[in-house]
Amino acid sequence: MDKQNLLCLSLGAYIGASLRLEIVSTYTNYFNDDIIPIDMFDNFLGSFVIGFYNDRYKIKDLSSHLAISTGFCGCLTTFSSWMLGSIKLANSEQWLNCLINIFLGFIIAYSGFKLGQNAEIEFKFLFHKKLLYLAFLKIIIFQAIFKKWNMIITALLSPFGAFLRFQISKLNHKNFPFGTLICNSLAVWIAQLLILSTLQFDTDDSKIVKSILKGFCGSLSTVSTWIKEICTMQSIELRFIYFWISLFLSLYIGLIICQSLF
């Protein structure tokens, strides 16, 4: 990856992660229900955007594709946070609520992607890299003015997760996205270990761990790409298998980690 592509990926990741953190912060101020996925709004928005652009830049302009799809949408949406909420419900034996959480999370992201695809047919919005730099400057200035240092540190970890996801995504096969499956599962497992480790740390150390969890793990995993792959896979059988394997690996191993170490 050359410097320009890496820069576009990093800026897109920072913008996406910052927007996710703002949305989740606003959400938690008004809602406190474990049944509803905490990242439902950002997962919807990220899935809508990736459906709207639908890889239109992938061949002719890789840097724009990396900025929008891998960076912005990949870091705006997060698979790990959604699954952690489901694992929490399952670990407390709230099985019905766990299923509702999974169902709502999937339907919301799926609806966002389909709406984005339909909007792409009706509207055309050309992306320009200057918008990326402008958005980054506005966000970082806003965060600095309001002294959101924790958010800045957390968002700065997002490019590392996005870059690792990009590298692992090279394992994706044309018939089955092994790379995305590995990224999402790995992010959930690491995040679960980090959550359990915070029980043994003091306040300052817990803040650092939570920044890694939200910044790195949240960006290593992605709902937008996962939904896009499910919707665009040729085989219906493989769509079904991919969906359930993704959920099973994340939930089952996550529960084993939780019950073994807690």
TrEMBL record:
Q: Any keyword Transmembrane?
A: yes
Its main localization is membrane
Q: Name one GO molecular function term.
A: fluoride transmembrane transporter activity
Cellular compartments per GO CC: plasma membrane
Metal-binding as a keyword of this entry, yes or no, is no
Pfam families in alphabetical order: CRCB
InterPro entries found in the cross-reference section: FluC
Q: Please state the span of the N-terminal signal peptide per the UniProt entry.
A: none
Q: Subcellular location, in the record's words? A: Cell membrane
Specify the domain of life of the species encoding this protein.
Eukaryota
Keywords for this entry? Cell membrane, Membrane, Transmembrane, Transmembrane helix
Q: Where are the transmembrane segments?
A: 65-82, 94-113, 125-145, 175-196, 239-257
Protein's membrane topology: Multi-pass membrane protein
The catalytic activity, as recorded, is: fluoride(in) = fluoride(out)
The family assignment reads:
Belongs to the fluoride channel Fluc/FEX (TC 1.A.43) family.
Role according to the record? Fluoride channel required for the rapid expulsion of cytoplasmic fluoride.
Name of the protein this chain belongs to: Fluoride ion transporter CrcB
